[in-house]
Amino acid sequence: MLKALPENIEVNDLIQRLDRGPAEHKGNAGKALLVGGDTGMAGALLLAGQSCLYLGAGWTMLQMLDHHSAHANSNHPELMISQASIKSATKLQDLKADVLGIGPGLGQSELAQTYLTSILTLPNAPVVIDADAINLIASSENNLLLLKIRNQRFPHRTILTPHPGEAAKLLKTDVATIQKNRLQAINRLVELTQSIVVLKGQHTLIASPDHSPFVCQAGNPGMATGGMGDILTGCIVAIAAQGIHHHLDLWESSCIAVHLHALAADQLVKKGVGPIGLTPSETMIEMRSIINQQLKQLNASH
Ligand SMILES: NC(=O)C1=CN([C@@H]2O[C@H](COP(=O)(O)OP(=O)(O)OC[C@H]3O[C@@H](n4cnc5c(N)ncnc54)[C@H](O)[C@@H]3O)[C@@H](O)[C@H]2O)[C@@H](O)CC1
Ligand SMILES: Nc1ncnc2c1ncn2[C@@H]1O[C@H](COP(=O)(O)OP(=O)(O)O)[C@@H](O)[C@H]1O
């Protein structure tokens, strides 16, 4: 039977682990690296980066493929943005990122492929794979093999977040088939990739080789706008980065992020911000409010 995403109380138990001790420093909140943002899609990487920042990562570094946009962002000078290059792609290990995310606006260029290969072969660190990085895996048996090898060597440390279009490409089928039986689709995606998988869309599903599928009942059609998935990627990366020192694994971090993302959109709709015109930028700020309110309430009740 399909389980609901851990009820509020269980997600709250997980969120509580993010509570900060008085002497914590940015090292405890983790170093995040996000890669993407090719020409015309720099915004996707910026949204993922901002979400990562608002959800609490200690450092958020972006490697941007579009060289016109690869510079400090005056609205968010906290983001450490550098230009993506073959040289940087092959030296990613030097950055010592705690968690990596690849895909938002990545495109499918040779440089994009070099980054994907580099990230898939990086030891240890949790990795979130989204958007065009999923498309690159769907179109190459070799990438799929690298993903499986990574999962054999470092189990539970890779997550894929396909929307139904990307899921259809991975499973070599069409969107209608995915949507007709989403449960079967996520089970096949887990089997194919041996990864944690978040199958997005109405009633997002999350499953892994060790967890049967959970369904997220929250969320609404106000979320059907470009960039909404990019902020989920940034949120998973941020929570997983904090999770390194706060005892949350990638599965737990993903459950928190999926829940917060959908709940934030629902709360905004209740306030009249959406469904029409709800933006990812507003949603990430609401996600930040929810996480801080929940921590405050949990602390008050102890
Ligand atoms: N601000 C930006 O720069 C943005 C850039 N983006 C980037 O644009 C690239 C292309 O990604 P897109 O996802 O926009 O386009 P795609 O062409 O990859 O996927 C869109 C298609 O997937 C299917 N689909 C998606 N969600 C569905 C759902 N819930 N139910 C049923 N079918 C669904 C539909 O067939 C839809 O037409 C990616 O690299 C992405 O990161 C997007 O993230 C949007 C924002
Ligand atoms: N009708 C809906 N009900 C619930 N959630 C939705 C709905 N439409 C979209 N979403 C959510 O919004 C997000 C959209 O992600 P995605 O399609 O990857 O966007 P993008 O690539 O533009 O950033 C996903 O988390 C998805 O679950």
From TrEMBL:
Query: Could you give the subunit structure recorded for this chain?
Result: Homotetramer.
Origin organism lineage? Bacteria, Pseudomonadati, Pseudomonadota, Betaproteobacteria, Burkholderiales
Its BP terms in the Gene Ontology are: metabolite repair; nicotinamide nucleotide metabolic process
For this chain, the family text in UniProt reads: Belongs to the NnrD/CARKD family.
Residues that bind (6S)-NADPHX, according to the entry? 44, 105, 163, 230
Q: Which reaction does it catalyse?
A: (6S)-NADHX + ADP = AMP + phosphate + NADH + H(+); (6S)-NADPHX + ADP = AMP + phosphate + NADPH + H(+)
Question: Organism source for this protein?
Answer: Polynucleobacter kasalickyi
The name on file for this protein is ADP-dependent (S)-NAD(P)H-hydrate dehydratase
Co-factor requirement: Mg(2+)
